[in-house]
Amino acid sequence: MTEPARILVVGGGYVGMYTALRLQRQLRAELRAGTVEIVVVTPDPYMTYQPFLPEAAAGSISPRHVVVPLRRVLDRCRILIGEVRSIDHAKRTAALSTLATEEEGSGGIELTYDELVLAPGSVSRTLPVPGLADHAIGFKTVEEAIGLRNHVIEQMDIASSTRDPAIRDAALTFVFVGGGYAGVEALAELEDMARYTARYYHNIKPEDLRWVLVEASDRILPEVGEDMGRYAIRELRGRNIDVRLETRLESCEDRTAVLSDGTRLPTRTVVWTAGVKPAPVLAATDLPLNERGRLRCTARLAVEGVEHAWAAGDAAAVPDVTSGEPGKECAPNAQHAVRQAKVLAENVAASLSGRPLREYGHAYAGSVASLGLHKGVAHVYGRKLKGYPAWFMHRAYHLSRVPTFNRKARVLAEWTLSGLFKREIVSLGSLEHPRAEFELAAAPPPADGDKPSS
């Protein structure tokens, strides 16, 4: 019996999940006959819909509704929870580690493949800022979104109970670094939530909270255009948010954020959203990369110069065939990733059957961004919207894009209920240390010599 043709999909994010989903539909007969096998290697057993992370952090959406379980959606694929460490495409092999290999101490396994789909996404792009690795919080995963929400409410609890004004001021100062989508939307949603939460504290008023947005360039939200970017700054500053343009974070050691303009901000919260970079696995392959570390691809989403290797999304440098500008590449954003996954799956299936491939082309439609509840900016097909219409468009667009009808219905239901009832403001900080209480209860009693004297 001949071995099935194995399609290895690296990454279970938006591109990886949708590529595998379309492949299992298009290759249904081959999968049933056992002539094709689809293997998805991903660090997490779910796909995270990242545009909803700010609302998950603010409590508008339950965190479990912004993730899609891969085993349920990709029921005809083989799912391996682990990470690809390196790829030798010349030999068609990938070295990976899984949860089992760590337990076994075997040092990883080697997986052979016939077709390779690289969609590992991106990771946070950090800089050598003193104290950043020790104190800053990222905002790319659902775990970070939940942790940040718990952290903000916990800081308000600290400020409410302390008698030390320095500790109180540091607890109520929140510094966000990065003026792109992630930074602006996360800050706006959390500021909205914290302002609402302050009404339940007897000694904290909304104006006691200090929110600072630090951006190295001279504008924020460049994707929505210069005019809408300026409007977003006016909107944020109107809510008493301190927007610092052409400013960098120099240090965040000793619970103090030091900015390039000389400002020193005692703070217990630094959120880093200053861009992303390609996943490290790309550097551990023998495939061609561009100067930014992304895979060089053709308009057919095949890796340039090699056969049987494909890529899309953040990991791929795909030429923009709709642009008249030579050398222009598709922006690594969700708008392109959604559409690239469809073409990528079709081309992989076509290559297996010897059918012609098609090129990917999509003219940029514009962007939408939320600035908190009922507030937003949009620049779509040349039209500029702000305020409630832009916020409504933001929600409608992302509701249409979140995968599966199940998730669409749950998110819509939560939005409806949140409009009828008050926000939930509870912090579940103990989630980060779930065994702490049991460990305390199970600890041996103190020795007689340790007991306090009466």
From TrEMBL:
The keyword Flavoprotein applies. The keyword NAD applies. It holds the Pfam family Pyr_redox_2. One of its GO terms (molecular function) is oxidoreductase activity. Keywords: FAD, Flavoprotein, NAD, Oxidoreductase. Belongs to the NADH dehydrogenase family. This is NAD(P)/FAD-dependent oxidoreductase. It comes from Streptomyces narbonensis. The lineage of its organism: Bacteria, Bacillati, Actinomycetota, Actinomycetes, Kitasatosporales.
